[in-house]
Design brief:
- The protein is α+β, with helices and mostly antiparallel strands and 522 residues long.
- The protein is built from 23 helices and ten strands.
- The radius of gyration is 27 Å and the shape is globular.
- It comes from Ancylobacter defluvii.
Length: 522
């Protein structure tokens, strides 16, 4: 009861702050659950009317609510189908909006994590230069063995951030469960799964050793690339609450004047960004999933440098094949094959028609084919896409959320570098290379080799399987010699369920008993 009241009070406060800052007034009325329109009209009565932009109102509201809500806002930017296309665009700009915490608190966290005084770790540690929802960053300096100074970036976890997130996540789960019970659309959007994904992402971000490992893995994957890199990790100065990496001297990707003054080719940078992301997602199944301009720099050699690997995405072989074939289907306008891939992957329920879905895919793809980014309305495209997913009962795929979000962000950043960017032509070389390598003759031979290896492993395990079968047979003989007996707790549970008239629970318990019996008999 106490947890329920706490959750509802936190949600009520969040609703008030959102209404007061004018955020609720900007929610797309078309996505509101039935019966909630009067509540949103009521919210207009307490709205602060000061002419601020949507992004400014969102920033003010989420900053007041704390780091959990800033992170939730950034995450919901991945779900325009939930919050609307306009609000999703506003949420995308929520980066480094939190107030920094005190220098003394940061130094105490460093000393506690590394078990050394700050003066013994760094030759110098400056004030925070950026503060986000999970951590803040300082510029520091270390001394090499020969006494050479080296500038470093020091990321320090926010104090008490874990306890705050635990409490707020409980509220988010409460709201998601209410939303799924109240609306079939909430069930289709899988609101609880969205919070699950957020919770996993935050848990990873709250251990900076994991971010260090992500940087190391990404560096290993991209070691042979000449146009992309990530900063190196200083493992001796890294722990759960502290991450130390090399300092990146570069120009931020949204500093157009600085990039031009340095002589960089902006359309070429857009190509590098788009193709790097696709290469990492398809080739490695491991990609930077927070590629906003604040995390992207161009160094003196013209290489794209990605920092802040707290949010990373992973794709299995199945998802990579799905992504490649879908992109290639759009590039080649093969709408039937594009639709078939959706059905093969299980993303569209089998009772729908492949031809009908191909027709819907064509309606999305034809208007944008062979056009530059400046001619495409991403808002309209996303709106049509989400209408199609609802029409064909397509449920949220949590494993694709970060991919979808990152693709939209990367294309948006690339478009600022080259307004005439054609994302299909830019993507085509990377996608074609992956298709040829993995779905062509070489890929088929490699797949066959893996199959033979699996057969070999199965043959090696055959003696163990036979021995295990013999043991099960002996146990079966002993267990059934005097009949199959149920445990007293199982019988009691069945009796309680039948006494309450709970047919569903009774059926489930008897099904478990039947499965156990079948396991013993067969």
């Amino acid at each position: 009861m106490a947890t329920f009241l706490g959750d509802m009070l936190r949600l009520a406060r969040a609703g008030y702050v959102m209404a007061r800052e004018g955020v609720l007034a900007r929610v797309d009325p078309d996505i509101l659950p039935p019966g909630t329109e009067p509540l949103f009209r009521l919210a207009r009565l307490i709205e602060r009317r000061d002419g601020r932009s949507s992004a400014a109102a969102l920033g003010a509201a989420l900053s007041r609510l704390g780091p959990s809500y800033v992170k939730l806002g950034q995450f919901l930017a991945t779900r325009p189908d939930v919050v609307g296309a306009e609000m999703a665009r506003d949420l995308e700009v929520l980066q480094d909006r939190m107030a920094p915490f005190a220098q003394g608190v940061a130094e105490a966290a460093i000393a506690r994590t590394l078990d050394r005084p700050v003066a013994a770790v760094y030759a110098a540690l400056g004030p925070p230069i950026a503060a986000a929802s999970i951590a803040q960053v300082h510029q520091g300096e270390t001394r090499e063995a020969e006494g050479t100074p080296r500038r470093v970036a020091v990321k320090v976890l926010r104090p008490d951030v874990q306890a705050r997130f635990r409490a707020d996540l409980s509220s988010f789960y409460r709201a998601a469960r209410i939303g799924e019970r109240a609306s079939p659309e909430g069930q289709r959007l899988r609101l609880v799964a969205i919070v699950d994904t957020l919770a996993r992402s935050v848990a990873m971000e709250m251990d900076l050793r994991l971010e260090a490992a992500a940087l190391s893995e990404l560096a290993q994957n991209t070691a042979a690339e000449t146009d992309f890199r990530v900063p190196s990790v200083d493992w001796d100065r890294t722990g759960r609450e502290v991450l130390t990496t090399e300092w990146i001297d570069g120009i931020k990707l949204n500093d157009m004047e600085g990039l031009r003054a340095a002589g960089h080719d902006l359309p070429e940078l857009g190509r590098i960004l788009m193709q790097s992301f696709l290469r990492h997602a398809l080739r490695d199944g491991f990609f930077h999933a927070d590629m906003h301009p604040g995390n992207l720099f161009i160094d003196a050699e013209g290489r794209l440098v990605a920092v802040d690997c707290g949010i990373m995405g992973r794709l299995g072989v199945k998802e990579r094949r799905f992504l490649a074939e879908i992109l290639y289907g759009f590039i080649t306008r093969n709408w039937i094959r594009t639709a078939e891939v959706h059905f093969e992957a299980g993303y569209v329920p089998a009772h729908h028609s492949v031809e009908d879905f191909a027709q819907a895919i064509r309606a999305i793809g034809e208007p944008i084919h062979s056009r530059s980014a400046s001619e495409i309305s991403m808002a309209k495209l996303l709106t049509l896409l989400f209408e199609v997913t609802a029409l064909f009962d397509m449920k949220t795929r949590p494993e694709l959320l970060l991919l979808q979000k990152t693709m939209v962000v990367v294309e948006g950043v690339a478009r600022t570098l080259d307004p005439q960017l054609n994302m299909w032509k830019t993507a085509e070389p990377v996608v074609r290379t992956w298709i040829e390598r993995n779905l062509g003759p070489a890929g088929k031979l490699e797949e066959a080799a893996h199959g033979l290896q699996a057969v070999g492993r199965g043959l090696q395990a055959l003696p163990d399987l036979i021995a295990q079968g013999q043991r099960i047979a002996s146990q079966l003989d002993r267990s059934t010699r005097d009949g199959l007996a149920l445990a007293p707790e199982t019988v009691e549970a069945i009796g309680r369920a039948e006494g309450r008239g709970n047919r569903g629970l009774t059926f489930a318990l008897w099904a478990i008993v039947a499965l156990l019996a079948a396991h013993l008999i067969f």
